[in-house]
Specification:
heterodimer, A: alpha+beta, Immunoglobulin-like, 4-stranded antiparallel sheet, 25% helix, B: alpha+beta, Sortase, Chain: A, 8-stranded mixed beta barrel, 31% strand, elongated
Chain lengths: 155, 242
């Protein structure tokens, strides 16, 4: 039961958004980009604030998470690992850069991959391999038997 | 009857060689049989990246570079493999599972609405079935025939057609999908086409892997008359060229 709950919560896919939000300053608006835009428990998510020329911080709404984003080359960036406790869904990530604020959205998925097939075209490669092997072995046995028979006649 | 001594000798000399060859063939055959019975997982070396975590490694320019504003895609075309598929919008279930296109419409692919739209900065993600019970091969079966350099085009609601160029194809275990890569940004708009692959587990009814085709931005144009008259594949045509 506990495990089931844990698995459910671990299945949070951060619906990452390329969230672009206008800042209030007079300069070029700060924009927030998340990479990846979709994540799951354990994914390292990097938050980038473009047009931000000072150290910034990011907070994730409805969580205690706070991320330092040191500035370098005209953009502030920092990362965090999606905690196991986060449930699947959308998370808003708010960035403060000086007096400017902007936000982005992260999608958190359950981490199970996409179910994009029914198996109707699946061959069984293992069986094919075993059959090929059996055929080769049979040919070899037949060849060896012929060799042995010839040598018996010759001698 | 007297055999010429030379002929006899050369045949006897060949015999051990033939025996050795056949023995090797037998060993190889037995090895294949053993290999066939022992499941071998797809080997994947851990990814190596030039930049550390917390640093994307390039200047992020979501507004620059002439990228497009948001407009949803309506179809995907990959002439090289005969793929001409309509698109539906796909989200995520409440539990966090990726939605997939309806099984009853195997010729339809889907666009993941939490990613970028075509030509917009960020990763645009499409998902499509490899196969369905009723149809056999389905819309993204043809992904296996896509090669590096092939064009993939997405038409948008606003009438713009965005081109991408295939760069590589990767297969990942569904249990260890590298979200950082599959859903990560690149310096330019990016496209990811996702389907199933690897071994099919009859017990769980699911493929073990997701196959991801990566493509990068190669420009956009206003839809031409030719673009607009391009037919879509219907429910029993999935391309499958090459």
């Amino acid at each position: 039961m506990l495990q089931a709950v844990r698995r459910l919560t671990a299945a949070v896919t951060l619906g990452a958004g390329l969230a672009l939000a206008a800042a209030t300053g007079a300069n070029a608006a700060v924009t927030v980009t998340l990479t990846p835009v979709t994540a799951t428990a354990g994914t390292t998510v990097t938050v980038v604030a473009a047009s931000c020329s000072e150290n910034a911080t990011a907070t994730v709404k409805d969580t205690a998470l706070k991320v330092d984003m040191p500035v370098a080359d005209g953009q502030a960036q920092g990362s965090f690992v999606v905690p196991n406790e986060w449930r699947a869904g959308m998370y808003t990530i708010a960035v403060r850069c000086g007096d400017d604020t902007a936000s982005g959205k992260l999608t958190v998925a359950d981490g199970t991959g996409a179910k994009t097939g029914s198996g109707s075209t699946a061959s069984d490669p293992a069986a094919a391999l075993a059959l090929t092997g059996a055929a080769a072995a049979a040919v070899a046995v037949a060849g060896l038997w012929l060799l042995k028979r010839r040598s018996r006649i010759d001698v | 009857m007297v055999r010429p001594a030379g002929a006899h000798r050369s045949e006897s000399a060949l015999r051990p060689l033939a025996a050795v060859g056949l023995a090797m063939l037998m060993a190889g055959g037995l090895g294949l049989m053993l290999g066939g019975l022992t499941p071998v997982p797809t080997i994947r070396l851990p990814g190596w990246s030039a930049h550390s975590a917390g640093d994307v490694g390039f200047t992020v320019d979501p507004d620059g570079g002439g990228w497009l504003d948001r407009s949803e895609p309506t179809r995907v075309d990959a002439e090289a493999v005969g793929m001409h598929a309509p698109l539906v919008d796909l989200g995520m279930s409440r539990g966090g599972e990726f939605e997939v296109p309806p099984l009853g419409r195997p010729h339809v692919a889907g666009w993941f609405e939490h990613g970028a739209t075509p030509g917009e900065f960020g990763p645009t993600v499409l998902l499509g079935h490899l196969d369905t019970e009723a149809s056999g091969p389905a819309v993204f079966y043809a992904l296996r025939f896509l090669a590096e350099g092939d064009r993939v085009e997405l038409a948008r609601e606003d009438g713009i057609v965005v081109s991408y160029e295939v760069t590589r194809t990767e297969a990942y275990s569904k249990n260890a999908l590298p979200y950082e890569e599959v859903f990560g940004i690149e310096p330019e708009p990016a496209l990811r086409l996702i389907t199933c692959g690897g071994r099919f587990d009859r017990e769980s009814g699911d493929y073990a892997e997701n196959v991801v085709v990566y493509a990068t931005y190669a420009g956009h144009r206003d839809a031409t008359a030719e673009d607009r008259s391009r037919p879509l594949n219907d429910r029993d045509d999935f391309g499958l060229h090459r």
